[in-house]
Design brief:
The chain is of the alpha+beta class and 166 residues long. The chain has helices at residues 2-11, 76-88, 142-155, 157-161; strands at residues 30-36, 45-51, 55-62, 68-73, 96-97, 100-103, 110-113, 121-128, 131-138.
Length: 166
Amino acid sequence: MRPWLVAIAACSAPAPAPAIHNATPAQPVTVLRMERTECLSGCPEYTIEVTNTGSVRWHGIANVGLLGDTIAHVSQADVQRMLAAFEHAGFFQLVGSRNMYQDCSTGHCITVLCDALDAPTTRVTIVRDGETHTHEAPRCYPALDRAEELVDEIVGAKVWIGLRAD
């Protein structure tokens, strides 16, 4: 009887191969970088970098409570909220460094010139679909300003900006 059982076992189909799962987590890639520059009256100067996985890197340069680097984390949903805010602000239609924009919110378009002697500028770089998009301007474009403020809010930058005691 045993030889017969061996013959049946030899003729049975092989067990299915185990499913292959990509166990390698997504590699963090910087998708958003926001740099705020100093001004003559002591504006905070810092850089925030956000990756696709939600890692946040703060680098305080001047006039901030936390100088140097620290790391934080936000959810991937928050990363998407930040990117969507820039999309909504028309970020990808802006070109390079500009101190003006078109305001068509009233139904009639006007060109708004942003020029201030003692104003910080913000340089935002976003990587989308492998392409890098950068825009630098002083704070005066309301929709873009709101997107930048959302980044500060979501990553908790207010705590790091703080008040310097120098």
